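Quick review question:
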């Protein structure tokens, strides 16, 4: 089934995050594919806020992974694989320990570790439309 969520403005982010979380159901491995500046980190921040994360959410560009805790006490892992030059670098941080944890894993720049992603990874595209709005789309 194909899913699409338009995001026309920053004001629509909370509603889009809420809808996204509802539509992905029990999927815990989410990979965001989008060009630089399309809003991967911005949308991840909205998702974390919707889940009740009280800490600041920021891109883990240099640390590769950030860990947050939801208001329900559940762990959320936020990855940014942009700086990785080879997939083995993801293995060095214990990637499969995170992915196998059952916790929500939100991944930016997954194309840099594509061959390591499990088959059940939900691959979400964020497209920048001509009017500057965004469109999230995926199939399950």
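Suggested answer, residue by residue:
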């Amino acid at each position: 089934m194909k899913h699409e969520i338009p995001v026309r403005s920053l004001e629509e982010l909370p509603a889009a995050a809420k809808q996204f979380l509802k539509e992905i159901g029990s999927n815990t491995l989410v990979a965001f594919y989008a060009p630089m500046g399309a809003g991967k980190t911005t949308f991840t921040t909205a998702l974390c806020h919707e889940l009740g994360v009280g800490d600041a959410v920021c891109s883990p560009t240099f640390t590769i992974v950030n860990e947050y805790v939801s208001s329900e006490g559940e762990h959320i892992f936020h990855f940014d694989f942009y700086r990785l030059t080879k997939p083995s670098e993801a293995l060095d941080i214990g990637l499969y320990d995170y992915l196998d944890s059952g916790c929500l894993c939100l991944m930016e720049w997954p194309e840099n570790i594509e061959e390591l992603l499990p088959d059940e990874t939900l691959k979400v595209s964020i497209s920048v439309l001509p009017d500057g709005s965004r469109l999230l789309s995926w199939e399950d």
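Why it works: The mean pLDDT is 95. The beta strands are 2-7, 29-33, 65-69, 75-80, 104-108, 122-128, 134-139.
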